[in-house]
Each structure stands twice: as structure tokens, then as C-alpha cells.
Amino acid sequence: MIFRCNLYVHCRNYEVKIAFHEGLKSGGTLHFKFGDVNLNKDVEKGITEHVFRDVRLKKGADWLEVFVKSNGKRIIPTYIDIKFKGTDK
Fold it and tell me: Which residues are registered as beta bridge partners of 64?
């Protein structure tokens, strides 16, 4: 299973917070993909959230995919928060 949705963003820097309600039962690799941005992070058992900072996303619509691969399974997050960081100047 993966979290997948279509999303439109402006060309800006964002902070992406990915949360898991009960913490991960085992470690794995967190995957974030939007357009040509593909981020991966090894995560430990028990974490409840991870934040990718200063993520530069290109303007436009594309598919957002987020999941943790752990022990051959895909775990979807319970919450994803994408916040614009900076100013419009």
C-alpha cells in the first residue's frame, strides 16, 4: 500500500511532515516522491514522524507518493503536512 494523491504546488521551498499514528513497528526506508523530487530516509522503529526540510518543488500538478518500506511491506502514513517556507518576494 502507498499514499498517492494528485497535488498542485507553486515553485517554492516546502517543509514536509510525515506522521504515523502509533509509531513504526519496525525500521525501514521512508519514500517521498513528487514529480522529479524523490527523497528517501532510513527510519528507526518507534518513530512517529519525520520532517523533510527545504524541499524544492516545481510548479504544477503531479502525483504525491509517500510510504515506508519495511520488512517487504509498505506502510502508509496517517498524516502528511506540506507547508510553504519563506516569502512570496
Answer: 5, 34
- Nearest partner of 57 among 80, 34, 40, 79, judged by Cα: 34
Structural domain count of the chain: 1
Q: Look at residue 3 and tell me whether its pLDDT is greater than 80.
A: no
At residue 8 the predicted structure's pLDDT band, cuts being 50, 70 and 90, is confident
- Phi (first) and psi of residue 35, to 5 degrees: 60, -130
Grid coordinates standing for 31? 519514500
Cell numbers describing residue 1? 500500500
Is the residue at 89 inside a domain?
no
3 and 75 in contact (C-beta within 8 Å)?
no
The pTM assigned to this predicted structure is: 0.86
